[in-house]
Amino acid sequence: MSKLDRVAPIKAKIKRAKKHIDDLDSAIDLFLEREPYRQVGHDDVETGDRVVALRVVEEVPSEILTIVGDAIHNLRASLDYLVASLVLANGKAVNTRTAFPICQSLDDFNTRGMRQIEGVSRDASDLIQALRPYKGGNATLWRLHSLDIIDKHRFLIALACYNDWFQWDVDAIIPLDAFFPTIKRGHRELWSRMALKDGAILLRIKRVDRMPVNVDPEFSFQIAFGEVCEGEPLVPSLFQLTNAIVGIIEVFLPLL
After folding, report:
1. 123, 117, 162, 64: which is closest to 256 by C-alpha?
2. Which of 1, 11, 65, 256 gives a 20 to 30 Å CA spacing to 54?
3. Do the beta carbons of residue 95 and residue 117 sit within 8 Å?
4. In whole angstroms, what is the distance from residue 117 CA to residue 94 CA?
5. Residue (of 168, 199, 188) closest to 56 by Cα position
């Protein structure tokens, strides 16, 4: 088997993952066009605060969750294909244990994980160990592995999240500079990444900080992971995972 033959299956898995992510991006756009996440503003009758809350009109459809799982599985499988190709490149035979190890701990890696890479060259083994592919060692690999394990048993949880900006068109009425300290506090408080459920408070403006006119900021919403990568938007997170996995694979190409 030539090097080209050993590399081709790995690249095919990466290519398929990218196709799923493109499909996911389109599916999410169509979903968001239906305005499944809306904001509702009201005055708190007890405090006089202005409150803007999230209203979930439609939950994330199973079609989107299925595509997410498919993308994750292909990324994870590309690493298993990588180890199988490394074994073949070293003139050894692939067995039923052959896989890219991502383990619960360093001890787990030193036992079960090392058995999974039996047959690879010493250089390949050293590179895999240097990646620290276990919980607490390599956060990116552990995230990918955890998401893949969850999706094998059930749909991943996906919830609404903020985009990283909002618009507040009140400058024509009152200069925004007069309220800059309040808005700045809001930015620091609001943009911590979190997945949001129906009824979540998006913004609370204290009665003493309220403007003379009620003009609520316009929030922009996206779909985020509800676990493991909680609060991180689906498509950007999957692109980041893909780039990280491609980078890992490229390190091993000279050994194939």
Report:
1. 123
2. 65
3. no
4. 9
5. 199
pLDDT digits (tens, 9 = 90+) for 199-245: 988 878 777 666 655 667 778 889 999 999 998 999 999 999 999 99
Distance CA 138, CA 232 (A): 18
Three-state SS annotation for 29-97 = HHHHHCCCEEEEEEECCCCCCEEEEEEECCCCCHHHHHHHHHHHHHHHHHHHHHHHHHHHHCCCCCCCC
Helix (H) or strand (E) holding 181: helix 180-190
Integer Cα distance of 74 and 62 in angstroms: 18
Q: Which amino acid is at 48?
A: G
Question: Can you name the residues that pair with 218 across neighbouring β-strands?
Answer: 167
Tell me the CB-side half-sphere exposure of residue 176, using CA atoms within 13 A: 11
- Tell me how far apart the alpha carbons of residues 144 and 175 are, in angstroms, rounded to a whole number: 47
Number of structural domains (the chain) is 1
Domain coverage including residue 81? 3-255
